Amino acid sequence: MVLTAVEIAAAVRAGDLDPVQVTKEALDRIAAADGVVGAFRRVRAEEALKEAAEVAARPDLASLPLAGVPVAVKDVTEIAGEYASHGSLAGPTSRAEADGVIATRLRAAGAVLVGLTRVPELCVWPMSDTPDGIARNPWDPTYASGGSSGGSAAAVAAGLVPLAHGSDGLGSIRLPAAMCGLVGLKPGADLLAEGGWFGMSVHGPMATTVADTAALLSVLAAKPSLASVPTPAPSRIAMSTTVPLLHTPVPRELVAAVAKAADLLTAAGHTTTSAAPRYPKTMVLGMTARWCAGPAVQAADFDFTRFQRRTRAHVRAGRLIQRAGLIRDRTRDRWVSRAEEFFAEHDVLMTPTLSHWPVRAGRWHERRWLTNVLPSTRLAGFTGQWNLAGYPAITVPVGRSAVSGLPTSVQLITKPGGESLLLGLAAQLESANPWPRTARK
């Protein structure tokens, strides 16, 4: 079993573990398993070993929060000497001369960047396959690991690395985390927004434990206080298992996960009731418009003729939406007003994370746009509205399906600034109902 990030960092700080050896072991696991898992687009083996040696020689080693911890980085951020492909063969391949904000903060904390994880083209879809590989669910490789942070989720769930960076524009951290049995946190837009998808996309952590999630969040956000997971005061928790506006059926075991989590949180001293926000009908249009137009903006720097068929259709739709003026602030403002109304009466909303089971792993990038859209929207019924609102949300494992063996989970949402509350509640669920950390035997 792979040590947690917190355990690795503590041992490295104390001089009991060598960062180079820790990195070698991670690279060995990747070499042994990633041919099946497909988590990485690029493994930085030589570079990571060199960086690990540099960490070991740092004079501030004893104070580094992620000292010697191998971390996987989603293939969307700038790393010196690398290029971010965004899952595409159509984009520029000039290598970055300097680290971006995410890599800079990870390195400052003592992390070792072992590789760039697989994403779908322009991060549009909840399945992460590219012409050179398929990110598979380590619990059952016949299923997709999700997306767009699917490679990151697969890397952590397979025990290749203890931590991974992700980004979330419509559920892209929470969906793969749920599919792979991980903790995945989408911070509020005021904490780690990257500006993409008209303000819906944010960076965030993926891990096997709540403590590791908090540690990575604190580094990504440059807020050390977030690493301390509090014991939350008694909270008013609303729960809903109805897909907002669409009311599509949710599989029974995904609904049952919410009931189980509600019992655990009630036993911990919280109040649980059935309630949901008054979702405005325009919310779906607001999310969909940004989902299409966001990648269309990014596509300006790419060779359109080299895009996958589904991406060309998506970008064309996004450009039409932009020309029609359908990206409207008032759509978001109306939804935020309703969300504020709800959270004046409740501290937290709990839902299933997934509104359907994961799709089968495959070469989804070769299929038509509509063939990708239908299962994507069926999966993500509970997640995207919180990107539109800019509210923090976390997914927490609860159990496993008796039928498929795939993980089940719940999503917890709260108002801006409430990341520590979400981590505290997740820690209570973890303590009362420990989950298997990885799919590795």
Automatic annotation (TrEMBL):
Pfam families: Amidase (PF01425). Residues 22-423 form the Amidase domain. InterPro entries: Amidase, Amidase_dom, AS_sf. It comes from the Bacteria. Belongs to the amidase family. This is Amidase family protein. It comes from Amycolatopsis nalaikhensis.
